């Protein structure tokens, strides 16, 4: 198995192909990890949530970690990307509408609170089989 450190470009390309990640933040105490449907807008993570959700209360103005991965437990391959950046509530109505169209929440209910996380620090790794193996992951960025 080869463990590869991903370039920023390759890491963001992989992130752009996934719909669910995890935001790690503090909610007035110990850290919390919240799953979130998201989209990548340029190099920003966009999340839609309800105004009274834990992530909405904890995130705006703070530095958060956002993790996305894809793991194949049978083949023992996969990748993980962690993004660390400042989160903000998108207050501009036109921008919030545009960004809202990018994210499709799975849960019912009102999800009109839009959070944008800048991708200040992006790191990622991918574990894959050797080139002569059958589980090599190839992509173009």
Secondary-structure-based class equals: mainly beta
Return the string of H and E elements. EHEEEHEEHEE
Characterize the largest beta sheet: strand count, sense, and whether it forms a barrel: 6 strands, antiparallel, barrel
Oligomer: single chain
Distance between the termini: 22 Å
Give the averaged pLDDT, no decimals. 82
Cα-atom Rg, whole angstroms?
A: 16 Å
Strand residue content? over 45%
Question: What is the share of helical residues?
Answer: 10-25%
Number of beta-strand segments: 8
Shape descriptor = globular
The DSSP helix count reads: 3
Helix and strand topology:
Blueprint lengths: L1 E4 L2 H8 L4 E7 L4 E11 L2 E6 L4 H5 L4 E10 L4 E13 L3 H8 L12 E6 L2 E8 L13
Overview of the structural elements:
The two termini are 22 Å apart. This protein has a six-stranded antiparallel β-barrel. With 141 residues, it is mainly beta. It has helices spanning 8-15, 54-58, 93-100; strands spanning 2-5, 20-26, 31-41, 44-49, 63-72, 77-89, 113-118, 121-128. The longest helix is centred in the N-terminal third of the chain and has 8 residues, at 8-15. It is 15% helix and 46% strand. The chain has three helices and eight strands; from the N terminus they run E-H-E-E-E-H-E-E-H-E-E. 26% of the residues are buried. A hairpin with a 2-residue loop joins strand 3 (31-41) and strand 4.
């Amino acid at each position: 198995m080869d463990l590869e450190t991903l370039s920023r470009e390759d890491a963001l390309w992989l992130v752009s192909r996934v719909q669910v990640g995890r935001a790690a933040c503090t909610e007035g105490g110990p850290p919390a990890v919240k799953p979130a449907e998201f989209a990548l807008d340029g190099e920003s993570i966009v999340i839609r949530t309800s105004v009274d959700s834990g992530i909405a209360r904890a995130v705006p103005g703070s530095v958060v970690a956002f993790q996305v991965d894809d793991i194949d437990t049978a083949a023992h391959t996969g990748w993980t990307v962690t993004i660390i950046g400042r989160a903000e509530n998108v207050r501009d109505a036109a921008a919030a509408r545009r960004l809202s169209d990018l994210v499709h929440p799975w849960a019912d209910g009102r999800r009109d609170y839009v959070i944008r996380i800048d991708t200040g620090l992006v790191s990622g790794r991918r574990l894959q089989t050797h080139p002569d193996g059958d589980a090599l992951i190839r992509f173009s960025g």
